[in-house]
Amino acid sequence: MANTGKDVDTLNSFLRGEISAVETYRKAMGHVSDDRIRTAIDECQHDHEHRVEELKDRIRKMGGEPAEDSGLWGSFSKLVQGGANALGEKAAVQALEEGEDHGLNDYQRDLDQLHGEARRFARMELLPAQKRTHERMSRLKRTLH
């Protein structure tokens, strides 16, 4: 099963992105006071946390070891979110929406590297969930301008 190792690597890449998203949403929550924005951030954070758990389970079932941290994406998200936090709620939402753009692009770019059940899982579960959180942040961003 040569593809299994590659599939685990790709799923771990997705997992690091999801862990980074959770970290970024947590940081943003501490800098937002508007209840409507807090609700949207909380919902997206929970969606990403759910994907983290789904990805960890899938990787383990494939015999792999799930990533434990966000790696380089975590450093990138800290930099982006740190700048947004200094500028306020609108900038924080914009940074979150940019992160959602990045996550969506990652899924769309790397989905076809997967095989069989891993590809089905990414195409039918991960990608639609990412599209929903992306749309939620995009809609929120539009209402703030």
Structure, explained:
The chain is mainly alpha-helical and 145 residues long. The protein has one domain: Ferritin, CATH 1.20.1260.10. 85% of the residues lie in helices and 0% in strands. It has 5 helices and no strands. The chain has helices at 2-29, 35-61, 71-87, 89-110, 116-144. Helix 1 packs parallel to helix 3 and helix 1 packs antiparallel against helix 4 (89-110). The longest helix is centred in the C-terminal third of the chain and has 29 residues, at 116-144. The protein is elongated. The model has no long low-confidence stretch (mean pLDDT 88).
Total domains: 1
Residue windows where pLDDT falls under 50 for at least 5 positions? none
Individual helix count: 5
- Beta percentage is under 5%
Shape: elongated
Main beta sheet: strand number and arrangement?
A: none
Mean pLDDT: 88
Distance between the termini: 50 Å
* Rg over CA atoms: 15 Å
Q: Could you give the count of β-strands?
A: 0
CATH superfamily: Ferritin, core subunit, four-helix bundle
Please give the share of residues in helix.
over 70%
Which fold name is given in CATH as the topology? Ferritin
Q: Classify the secondary structure makeup into a structural class.
A: mainly alpha
Order of helices and strands: HHHHH
CATH class: Mainly Alpha
Architecture (CATH level 2) name: Up-down Bundle
